[in-house]
């Protein structure tokens, strides 16, 4: 940055006021906490060799985020795989297949397991390899490190140790957590971009200690030694406690001195720093948390089905082993051809019980085909492919941010189709987090003529209400509705200056000076220009400045101040420079304001202040903060404008604007210096209570304020949010807004998004806190319980089916209602309300509310948010969606899906969710069907072999069944099936409710599929046996042996299950055709190839197709009839259902098929609107309510006219 | 076929052009899941015609199979009881196991209809579990295949080796229990030749049973199972053994014994001489002699035809039933009144 270079080599520290913060501490008594367990770290600066051995052997800077390493991969990854119950079963089966108990050859048991587990492990290994490569890339980065004797040389990151002095250059990342010693700026400041930590794009200023400023070239480090004693590694990014022992003086360290790993040096040529925390000790690494692993409901249910199948497996195994024991005991002694006298314990008639028991093991392995071994791996493959479709969806790509949607965990895809409640953050999610300065109130006068989006929306409504008397007809309201939405999305006021939409000639162009209260206005502007912690960035193009501010509000204020003629142009450590221009004719005057203190903003204080000394030497405290806080702190003589300002604040609030109150206080010199002494003392307190001390002292100063006015900035709604909410509501989703904002703002945003509307009954739950502390809790709870009961009664008694209720609750009240004895009452009330808005909620409460909804209703919840404060909620919800927008990466990192705009949620849920849900549901049902159909034929055959455990199929057939012959069609079903096109999904959001009501994976359906499997197995077995009985099966007179029977049956199965899947599919692209019919073809090809292999491998299957079966007509006609007989019941059922009880998608498919939507556009439009008629929130609901109102009015009029006629 | 139109495609393509450097996903009909697809619809016409078509196809096949089955002439003669002399009926097992008894048994069969050559001769066993796991696995294909692997007797216990440890060829219970009844036929005292060649699969003779493998130590142990083998004939030519080694799927099975290559005329009397050696008496088995011609579907089996007729007529019935149902309760395809929100509008 050229700007940065220009500022170099200025000796700012001469006017560096903070220098006084650091008194020389001669008595270097160790503060007691250093001995404590959590403040025990000692770093010997510039002596990294000391940290190579104990007791200072801290972790090196080598990082690894991999789950496994070369040695642990195998055991750990295997362990992960065998945590699945089905895999354990197959492992046991494979192990037992090595013993004579097994009915199969070992290879036919081990190969599929190895394939399935190997595939999953390969996936793990690949993912881990990617992580490893990423780690290595980071570890191999180079940085300049002090090698001794004042020489610096490049070293890899991984070789850096605690205590090393490093020199980081511009636009490089910090290799570890560093203590800033000095920078290219003489006063030791540097700019840091913390994008990777918190996602904020604005730069932050870090300052070095005054005492290390001299260490600003390589040579200076030749003999540099110092000791740092500080806190142990911890994940708090914004705190740091420690002290710095240098030249026998001790200096306190604070977060501002610390440069965190993974942040980037900006606008500064170089800095020197000493490594404090390296590698995994660094704060960013300590922060890396594993997000909880989530599983979808369908998968959980699938586990239960697997248990059902296990039960079935055990049942038939027990039946067959009892049968075996009886036959062995009673009949086998007579079967001389088995030589029953010379047998092993497996078939010992004398020990039939033992043989029976051993046979149980055999049977458990034999019937293992009931458990679909490849189910998990197929589902994994399908979900990964589904996720790539989600990632690659061009319609969820945001041009502005360049982000596409991302399925970060692929195992929740189908859950997207079942969401019932959305819990949404407001800021950054529903709104842009871009603030526009729109209005202000100064000295009791309100300025700013433009209206907010909310006001525009409201006036639009008023307008249409006034002119909309004829809107009662369906068609016209449809048009109007579309128009209205279009208007909102496409025609926003485009401010010419980002962040500034203010328009009022009274203040603009220097006209403010003519106002009667010009003094106050001047003060107002100065507060805007001075009371902040932003950094100006010269803008090459315009010659002006842009501002790197901590919050968008602040940036908006600075832009506003600039537009009013108070351009903040320069900040040094001690001063702020403002170019003031009182009127357009006057010249620029650059004024310097010394910043004596800056009392920072935090969410607890809800205010920030600066203490400045102007050129004339007068000291001011300038303060801005939440109105309630400021109003509490006004002096008696400072309340001149209180009532007007308050009125304006309410107005602004109603217009959906975000408000802050501004105030000031004049300080006299002695008052200030007394206070400052105390403040400094507090600041230099070393210990954990420093913050509390500072806060207390700050609080003392921020009193007796004089109110100047208030600002109103608009928090702009994101593009498409109201329409998206409308669609989601039509899809039957409930939307809760959880926001940290105050109640008024939240309500306004609620109106803007149509979550609230006029005529909706608002239920506000609140607590009165005027009770004595003792039983405050009890009293508050009692009163809340009353409120909840009353509200519930009101809802229950409500006769009008169209009446909607909205529940509004604030954070404080929420603490009470979230307690165990209250929460169910609250939840019952909340689910009866059309919209729920929770304001002033903390991140923790967001998570708690999410948990309450999730556990209380038992339905699927989705939490969407963009900030670090939403992480808890995102992790808690069934599905967490992060907005990858401006505010940060933390929400995205914690989320399961990330999208860049709230409006993409519609497509994510209504299209992808709907598809994925149906696909996975169908796929699992089919899987169970096919394995039951196959597995039971083995059981039936058993009954004919004296339950001896012989399989009619060749081992190789069995091996291929799940892994090759039937896996690809079911994967295509899971990846490509579509009941209706994406466009129809969006047009008929009601289709989404099929997922919410779980129509495609209920027990009725699952059991239906299981019975279909049972029927199929019976049909296949008995038809095949009946046809290939003892007679010759060829004109040559040959009779069927076991290989012929087995192969014919197996061919029938392959045909049956593939025809079945073709009957399930609604959507055939070439891919489906290829895989479905390709699988059948593969079977024949395999049979030919297998028949050609050496007879020692193929056994009786040698040349089976070409020699034995192929020329036999009965083989082919048997296949045909079995396939037909097996699929007729399903086809009949499906045809019957479709004809007489069609589901929505069936009717829509027909409409589309016959192009009725084009022929009868009116009908199509009508159905589209009817499909979304049932909501109580959203635009549509608003319009509906209006229509009802109009109708009532018309009815009344008609009634009264008729009455008058009668009279 | 309904091919969806991809109208956003062009716009999106243009956008790709505009912003090449971005992470923008590439547009393709595949990634947008808009590939041209066939979306078959189960319309009444399709349902009815499918069922009707299946019916129309299946019934002729069924009739053809039935008539083929009817044309097969089969003589089945159960001889296991009758071939035991009256005095031994109480202890059939002792009779069959005694080496002293004369097991020759004679009977006369009447040819019911003309039987065209070749007439296949089968023996049929009932209640014999050739499919028992212990039995099925009790063989060694390697040993059967070549002389090299003569010593290979894995899986063959207890018929693997002789007492002194030399291998039994062919080893295992299957070979050991080889069926050993023999039949000879005569018409009017003139013997009918039984061709016992080519009763096994050609591939079995060529590849599975070695031409250099000769029986060795077979049936030499204390326990004699079934037939003995001529040690001078290689296994590849022991077709009875090869047929027997193809284990049957069910406990009731027929195996090819040989063929009579002369036509048999209706009402001819065939005198059969049976050497009743095989012990089915221990396990209450049955033995039958079967003479049968074949048709294109093989031997006599009405099941196939019946199954086809049943399924075919069921389909025709279903086709009719659907016609009736559609007539009684017609539904215009794509009639929006069947949409859920029109059917029960009060659901919400």
Automatic annotation (TrEMBL), chain A:
It holds the Pfam family Cation_ATPase. Its main location: membrane. ATP binds at residues 425-427, 554, 601, 624, 658, 739-741, 840, 846, 869-870. Residues 43-110 form the P-type ATPase N-terminal domain. It is found in: Membrane. Belongs to the cation transport ATPase (P-type) (TC 3.A.3) family. Type IV subfamily. InterPro entries: ATPase_P-typ_P_site, P-type_ATPase_IV, P-type_ATPase_N, P_typ_ATPase, P_typ_ATPase_c, P_typ_ATPase_HD_dom. One of its GO terms (biological process) is phospholipid translocation. The active site is at residue 425. The chain crosses the membrane at residues 85-103, 109-126, 305-327, 356-377, 920-944, 956-976, 1006-1030, 1042-1062, 1074-1093, 1113-1131. Residues 892-1143 form the P-type ATPase C-terminal domain. This is Phospholipid-transporting ATPase. GO terms for cellular component: plasma membrane. It is an enzyme of class 7 (translocase). Its cofactor is Mg(2+). Mg(2+) binds at residues 425, 427, 866, 870. Its EC number is 7.6.2.1. It catalyses: ATP + H2O + phospholipidSide 1 = ADP + phosphate + phospholipidSide 2. It is a multi-pass membrane protein. One of its GO terms (molecular function) is ATPase-coupled intramembrane lipid transporter activity. Keywords: ATP-binding, Isopeptide bond, Magnesium, Membrane, Metal-binding, Nucleotide-binding, Translocase, Transmembrane, Transmembrane helix, Ubl conjugation. It comes from the Eukaryota.
């Amino acid at each position: 940055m050229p700007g940065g270079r220009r500022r170099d080599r200025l000796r700012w520290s001469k006017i560096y006021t903070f220098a006084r913060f650091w008194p020389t501490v001669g008595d270097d008594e160790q503060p007691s906490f250093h001995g404590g367990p959590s403040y025990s770290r000692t770093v010997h600066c510039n002596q990294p060799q000391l940290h190579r051995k104990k007791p200072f052997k801290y972790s090196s800077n080598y990082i690894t985020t991999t789950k496994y390493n070369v040695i642990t991969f195998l055991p750990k990854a295997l362990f992960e795989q065998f945590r699945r119950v089905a895999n354990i079963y197959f492992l046991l089966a494979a192990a037992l297949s090595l013993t004579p108990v097994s009915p199969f050859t070992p290879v036919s048991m081990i190969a599929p397991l190895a394939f399935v587990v190997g595939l999953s492990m390969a996936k793990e290994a690949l993912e881990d390899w990617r992580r490893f490569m990423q780690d290595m890339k980071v570890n191999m980065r180079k940085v300049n490190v002090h090698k001794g004797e004042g020489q610096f040389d490049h070293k890899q990151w991984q070789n850096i140790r605690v205590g090393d002095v490093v020199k980081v250059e511009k636009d490089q990342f910090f290799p570890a957590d560093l203590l800033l010693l000095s920078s290219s700026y003489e006063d030791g400041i540097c700019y840091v971009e913390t994008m990777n930590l918190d996602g904020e794009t604005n730069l932050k200023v870090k300052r070095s200690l005054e005492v290390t400023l001299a260490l600003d070239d390589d040579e200076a480090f030749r003999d540099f030694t110092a000791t740092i004693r500080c806190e142990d590694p911890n994940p708090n990014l914004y705190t740091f406690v420690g002290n710095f022992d240098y030249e026998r003086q001790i200096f306190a360290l604070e977060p501002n001195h610390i440069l965190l790993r993974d942040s980037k040096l900006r606008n500064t040529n170089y800095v020197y720093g000493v490594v404090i925390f390296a590698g995994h000790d660094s704060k960013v690494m300590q922060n890396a948390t594993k997000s909880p692993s989530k599983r979808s409901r369908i998968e959980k249910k699938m586990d239960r089905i697997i248990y059902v199948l296990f039960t079935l497996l055990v049942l038939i195994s027990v039946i067959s082993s009892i049968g075996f024991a009886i036959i062995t005991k009673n009949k086998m002694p007579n079967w001389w051809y088995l030589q029953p006298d010379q047998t092993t314990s497996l078939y010992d008639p004398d020990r039939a019980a033992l043989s029976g028991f051993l046979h149980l093991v055999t049977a458990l392995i034999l019937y293992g085909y009931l458990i679909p071994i490849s189910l998990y791996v197929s589902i994994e493959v399908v979900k990964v492919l589904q996720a790539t479709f989600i990632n690659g969806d061009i319609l969820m790509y945001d041009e502005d941010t360049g982000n596409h949607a991302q399925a970060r965990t692929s195992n929740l895809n189908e859950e997207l189709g079942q969401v019932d409640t959305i819990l949404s953050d407001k800021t950054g999610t529903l709104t842009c987090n871009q603030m526009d300065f729109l209005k202000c109130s100064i000295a009791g006068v309100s300025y700013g003529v433009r209206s907010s989006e909310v006001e525009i929306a409201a006036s639009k409504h008023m307008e249409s209400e006034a002119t909309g008397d004829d809107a009662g007809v369906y068609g016209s309201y449809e048009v109007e509705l579309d128009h209205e939405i279009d208007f909102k999305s496409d025609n926003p006021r485009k401010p010419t200056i980002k962040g500034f939409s203010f328009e009022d000639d009274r203040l603009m162009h220097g006209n403010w000076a003519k106002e009667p209260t010009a003094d106050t206005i001047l003060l107002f502007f100065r507060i805007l220009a001075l009371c902040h912690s932003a950094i100006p960035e010269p803008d090459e193009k315009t010659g002006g400045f842009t501002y790197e501010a901590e919050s968008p509000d602040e940036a908006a204020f600075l832009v506003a101040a600039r537009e009013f003629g108070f351009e903040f142009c320069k900040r040094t450590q001690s001063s702020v420079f403002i170019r003031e221009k009182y009127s357009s004719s006057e010249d620029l005057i650059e004024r310097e304001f010394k910043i004596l203190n800056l009392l920072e903003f935090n969410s607890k204080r809800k205010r920030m202040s600066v203490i400045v000394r102007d050129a004339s030497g007068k000291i001011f405290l300038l303060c801005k903060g939440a109105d309630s806080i400021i109003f509490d702190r006004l002096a008696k003589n400072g309340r001149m404008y209180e009532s007007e300002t308050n009125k304006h604040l309410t107005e602004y609030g109603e217009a959906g604007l975000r408000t802050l109150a501004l105030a000031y206080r004049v300080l006299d010199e002695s008052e200030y210096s007394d206070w400052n002494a105390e403040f400094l003392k507090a600041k230099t307190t070393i210990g954990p209570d420093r913050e509390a001390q500072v806060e207390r002292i700050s609080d003392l100063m921020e009193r007796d304020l004089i109110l100047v006015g208030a600002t109103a900035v608009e928090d702009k709604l994101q593009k498409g949010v109201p329409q998206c909410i409308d669609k989601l509501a039509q899809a039957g989703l409930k939307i809760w807004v959880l926001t940290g904002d105050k109640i008024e703002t939240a309500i306004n945003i609620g109106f803007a998004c149509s979550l609230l509307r006029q005529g909706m009954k608002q239920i506000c739950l609140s607590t009165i806190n005027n009770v004595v502390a003792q039983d405050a809790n009890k009293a508050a709870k009692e009163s809340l319980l009353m409120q909840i009961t009353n509200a519930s009664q009101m809802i229950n008694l409500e006769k009008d089916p169209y009446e909607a209720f909205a529940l509004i609750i604030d954070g404080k009240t929420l603490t009470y209602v979230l307690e165990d004895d209250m929460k169910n009452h609250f939840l019952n009330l909340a689910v009866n309300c059309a919209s729920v808005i929770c304001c002033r909620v903390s991140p923790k409460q967001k998570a708690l509310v999410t948990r309450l909804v999730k556990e209380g209703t038992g339905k699927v919840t989705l939490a969407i948010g963009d900030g670090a404060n939403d992480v808890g909620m995102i992790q808690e919800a069934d599905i967490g969606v992060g907005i990858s927008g401006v505010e940060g990466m933390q929400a995205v990192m914690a989320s399961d899906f990330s999208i860049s705009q709230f409006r993409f949620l519609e497509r994510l849920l209504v299209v992808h969710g709907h598809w994925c849900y149906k696909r996975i549901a169908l796929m699992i049902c089919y899987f169970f069907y096919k394995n039951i159909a196959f597995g039971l034929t083995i059981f039936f055959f058993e009954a004919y072999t004296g339950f001896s455990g012989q399989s009619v199929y060749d081992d190789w057939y069995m091996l291929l069944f799940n892994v090759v012959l039937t896996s690809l069609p079911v994967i295509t079903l899971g990846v490509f099936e579509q009941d209706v096109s994406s466009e129809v999904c969006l047009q008929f959001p009601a289709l989404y409710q099929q997922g919410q009501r779980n129509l495609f994976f209920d027990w009725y359906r699952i059991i239906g599929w299981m019975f279909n499997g049972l029927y199929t197995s019976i049909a296949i077995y008995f038809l095949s046996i009946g046809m290939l009985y003892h007679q010759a099966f060829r004109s040559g007179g040959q009779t069927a042996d076991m290989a012929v029977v087995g192969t014919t049956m197996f061919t029938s199965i392959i045909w049956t299950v593939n025809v079945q899947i073709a009957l399930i599919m609604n959507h055939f692209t070439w891919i489906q055709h290829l895989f479905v019919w390709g699988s059948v073809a593969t079977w024949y090809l395999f049979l030919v190839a297998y028949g050609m292999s050496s007879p020692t491998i193929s056994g009786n299957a040698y040349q089976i197709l070409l020699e034995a079966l192929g020329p036999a007509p009965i083989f082919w006609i048997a296949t045909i009839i079995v396939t037909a007989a097996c699929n007729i019941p399903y086809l009949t059922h499906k045809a019957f259902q479709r004809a007489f009880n069609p589901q929505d998608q069936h009717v829509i498919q027909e409409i589309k098929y016959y192009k009725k939507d084009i022929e009868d556009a009116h009908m199509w439009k009508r159905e589209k609107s009817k499909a979304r008629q049932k909501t109580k929130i959203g635009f549509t609901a608003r319009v509906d309510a209006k229509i009802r109102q109009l109708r009532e009015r018309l009815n009344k009029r008609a009634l009264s006219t008729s009455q008058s006629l009668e009279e | 076929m309904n091919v969806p139109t991809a109208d956003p495609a062009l716009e999106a393509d243009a956008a790709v052009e505009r912003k090449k450097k971005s992470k923008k996903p590439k547009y393709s009909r595949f990634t947008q899941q808009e590939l041209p697809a066939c979306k078959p619809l189960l319309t009444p016409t399709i349902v009815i015609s499918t069922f009707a078509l299946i019916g129309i196809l299946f019934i002729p096949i069924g009739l053809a199979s039935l008539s083929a089955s009817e044309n097969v002439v089969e003589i089945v003669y159960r001889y296991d009881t009758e071939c035991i002399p009256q005095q031994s009926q109480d202890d059939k097992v002792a009779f069959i196991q005694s080496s002293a008894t004369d097991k020759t048994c004679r009977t006369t069969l009447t040819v019911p209809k003309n039987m065209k050559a070749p007439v296949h001769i089968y023996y049929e066993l009932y209640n014999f579990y050739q499919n028992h796991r212990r039995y099925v696995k009790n063989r060694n294909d390697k040993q059967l295949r070549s002389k090299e692997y003569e010593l290979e007797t894995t899986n063959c216990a207890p018929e693997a080796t002789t007492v002194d440890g030399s291998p039994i060829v062919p080893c295992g219970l299957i070979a050991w229990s080889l069926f050993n009844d023999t039949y000879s036929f005569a018409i009017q005292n003139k013997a009918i030749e039984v061709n016992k060649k080519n009763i096994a699969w050609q591939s079995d003779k060529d590849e599975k049973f070695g031409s250099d493998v000769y029986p060795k130590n077979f049936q030499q142990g204390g326990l004699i199972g079934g037939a003995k083998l001529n040690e001078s004939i290689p296994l590849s030519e022991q077709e009875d053994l090869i047929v027997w080694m193809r284990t049957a799927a069910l406990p009731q099975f027929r195996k090819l014994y040989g063929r009579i290559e002369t036509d048999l005329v209706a009402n001819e009397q065939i005198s059969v001489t049976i050497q009743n050696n095989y012990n089915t008496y221990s396990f209450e088995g049955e033995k039958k002699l079967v003479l049968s011609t074949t048709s294109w579907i093989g031997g006599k089996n009405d099941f196939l035809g019946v199954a086809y007729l049943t399924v075919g007529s069921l389909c025709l019935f279903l086709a009719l039933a659907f016609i009736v149902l559609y007539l009684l309760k017609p539904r215009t395809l794509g009639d929006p009144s069947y949409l859920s929100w029109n059917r029960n509008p009060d659901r919400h």
